[in-house]
Amino acid sequence: MDLALGGRRHAFLSTAQTPVILLDTNALLWLRRGHPRSRPLIRSAGRLYVSPVTVLELQLLVEVGRLRLRSGATVSDLIEDDRWVLDDPPAARWFEFALAGSWTRDPFDRLLVAHAQLRAWRIATGDAAMLEHSSGRCLAL
What we know:
Layout: E1 2-5, E2 8-11, E3 20-23, H1 25-33, H2 39-43, E4 47-50, H3 52-63, H4 75-79, E5 84-86, H5 91-99, H6 107-119, E6 122-125, H7 128-132, E7 138-140
Parallel strand pairs: 3-4, 3-6, 4-5, 6-7
Antiparallel strand pairs: 1-2
């Protein structure tokens, strides 16, 4: 079930039978821009979710100048899209899963993979290291 809270949609307990896919940061950007690497996502029948970690990573990329948004646009504008839902995983369990992520020193990748593992969702990514450590539950882009 998705709940509308303060103008944002958050995932509460999804009971849908369709596959669920967590978008990594690049997957979200590729899908948003219609990049050819997003084609597997377009063909997928799965529900798409975004992690709060992606929101933070996007904001940091904007702040350091590695991501430019259209004039007046914000990271929240990227997240507010009918194609995906912002998930809200329980932080204590999520971070517990992330403790086992010693395969990387990138906190964003570590938390994204932990998020997908916590929810038992597939993760959509083009990152080779994430693909290798996502317990086979991935959609390679």
